[in-house]
TrEMBL record:
Coiled-coil regions, chain positions: 131-162
Transmembrane segments: 12-34, 40-64, 172-193, 213-241, 349-366, 372-389
Family matches, as InterPro entries: UCP026631 (IPR014529), YdbS-like_PH (IPR005182)
Ranges where the YdbS-like PH domain occurs: 61-141, 245-322, 391-472
Annotated keywords: Coiled coil, Membrane, Transmembrane, Transmembrane helix
Any Pfam family the entry gives: bPH_2
Transmembrane listed as a keyword: yes
Source organism (scientific name): Virgibacillus xinjiangensis
Protein name per the record: PH domain-containing protein
Length: 484
């Protein structure tokens, strides 16, 4: 039996930031509304709210305790309404440690505990715990889950034989250069620029706009290139901060991922929760033979801050993917050639769907402002090529109880899954597909937050779709049940 423990006093600061984040919009709205009149009342009300937030943060920290007792993690919290949460160690799926900038200043970490039913949020979250205490808590929960000490020692001996992969600085820089993060930064910059007029004096804004308009074309082009270059550098910096010191290690039946320069994350992935493994080749990386490896992991939580697919390695050469999987996830390894392509008659569906929106826009522009028609036609040509690439890259391969699918969204995606991981299989046909003996296949697995993850192969030959359905139902071509 362990004594109840409180988090580090820095937890007060994290509680305060959480409340402040939830109330920042009303505060800004009140400031904009009352900045000219009744400002004194707004300041008095703001001071009162600030005091309430500080007191609430202190009480929330003081009333939060946790302990491990009788094979359970027991958490008690709540200021006015006392709540108790008991989490059996048998239900715990993963224990993750995250250290942000403030955490690292105080030598702390955030402990997130997930169970099979965590949903959109972690089952339990300890916001500020000393790193040695967090590691001790993790080891204690795992030791109780594993059983006796002898079994733990045997497992530790096995773990010492497992391998680890770490990203180099050169690969990390290359990942940032080809990540496409500049587009995201550009979108954020554009949104910020569109809203900035509301927060600066009108006279200054108008004079700045007049000055920009008065610049020569050469200066404007140079300024635009400089802004794009700056956004590109920011995109590289963001990727390097996120994936800096990226290391993936296999220990027993779990994968451990550590990454981050400013915010250090330690993510635990039980192998039994992996539903599919794949690799993505973006249009920038594919010509150079690079790809990123990802996994679809069942469960997880939204406050974990992860993407919908878990990155197993940010970037590596295409020929390095198979050795990497052989070392980390051998069940998913094995060079697979001979993907079965789509029939030739499926190509027109892909290209028509890609180019149709531009043709409709082009028809409108032709009636309204015909001098811009050339730009629409240029975009329509690019869309036509994109549709052809989608058609050419789509295919599938069945090998025993494993299904591999390849398709293109913006980049080319290849995903591998086992039969036992497929939760649902569906075949769709609309009238045009029926006329051409084509069909769309939908395969569903369990994804992040316990939600479904769906993969589509569109415009399959109807006979191939039926053959895949028979593979899913363990039936042969004559409808007879096959041996599993």
């Amino acid at each position: 039996m362990s004594e109840p423990k409180r988090m580090h006093p820095a937890g007060i600061l994290f509680n305060f930031f959480k409340v402040l984040r939830e109330t920042i919009f009303p505060i800004v709205f009140g400031f904009v509304t009352f900045r000219n009149e009744s400002m004194i009342y707004f300041l008095l009300a703001g001071a009162a709210v600030l005091v309430i937030m500080i007191v609430s943060s202190i009480l929330s920290w003081y009333r939060f305790t946790y302990r491990v007792e009788d094979g359970e993690l027991r958490i008690e919290y709540g200021v006015f309404i006392r709540k108790k949460r008991f989490i059996s160690v048998n239900r715990i799926q993963s224990i993750d440690l995250t250290s942000g900038v403030i955490h690292r200043v105080f030598g702390l970490t955030k402990v997130q505990i997930e169970t099979a039913g965590s949903g959109m949020q972690a089952e339990a979250s300890l916001k500020a715990v000393k790193l040695p205490e967090a590691e001790q808590l993790r080891d204690e929960l795992k030791s109780k889950l594993e059983g006796d000490l002898e079994e733990s020692l045997d497992r530790a001996e096995e773990e010492s034989e497992d391998s680890s992969h770490r990203i180099t600085f050169q690969r990390l820089f290359l990942a940032g250069t080809t990540s496409g993060s500049a587009g995201v930064v550009l979108a954020v910059f554009a949104f910020f620029f569109s809203q900035i007029q509301q927060f600066i004096p009108e006279r200054f804004y108008d004079s700045t706009v007049d000055w920009v308009v008065g610049l020569s074309i050469v200066l404007l082009v140079g300024f635009g290139i400089l802004v794009l270059l700056l956004l590109w550098v920011l995109g590289i910096a963001g990727t390097m901060l996120k994936y800096g010191n990226f290391t993936i290690t296999k220990k027993g039946d779990e994968l451990f991922i550590t990454r981050g320069l400013l915010e250090k994350k330690q993510i635990t992935i039980p192998l039994k929760r992996i539903q599919a493994v794949g690799f993505a080749e973006s249009p920038i990386r594919q010509p150079f033979g690079y790809a990123s490896v990802f996994a679809e992991v069942a469960g997880g939580s939204l406050d974990k801050g992860e993407e919908f697919s878990t990155v197993l390695f940010p970037i590596m050469k295409r020929e390095e993917v198979e050795p990497f999987l052989q070392d980390i996830l051998p069940d998913y390894a094995g060079i697979q050639e001979g993907f079965e392509p789509l029939p030739r008659r499926a190509g027109k569906f892909y290209m028509l769907r890609a180019v149709l929106p531009f043709l409709l826009v082009g028809a409108v522009i032709w009636f309204v402002f015909s001098p811009l028609l050339w730009a629409v036609l240029l975009l329509a040509t690019a869309a036509l090529c994109y549709g052809y690439l989608q058609y050419r890259d789509t295919g599938f391969l069945v090998k025993g109880n494993r299904l591999s699918m390849r398709y293109r969204t913006f980049g080319r995606i290849t995903v591998r899954m086992f039969h036992k991981r497929v939760q649902a299989f569906e075949i769709r046909q609309h009238k045009l597909q029926q006329m051409q003996s084509l069909a769309t296949q939908k395969v569903s697995i369990i994804g992040k937050f316990g939600a479904g993850k769906h993969y589509y192969l569109k415009q399959l030959d109807e006979s191939d779709a039926i053959r895949l359905a028979e593979w899913y139902s363990y039936r042969d071509g004559e409808g007879q049940k096959m041996d599993q």
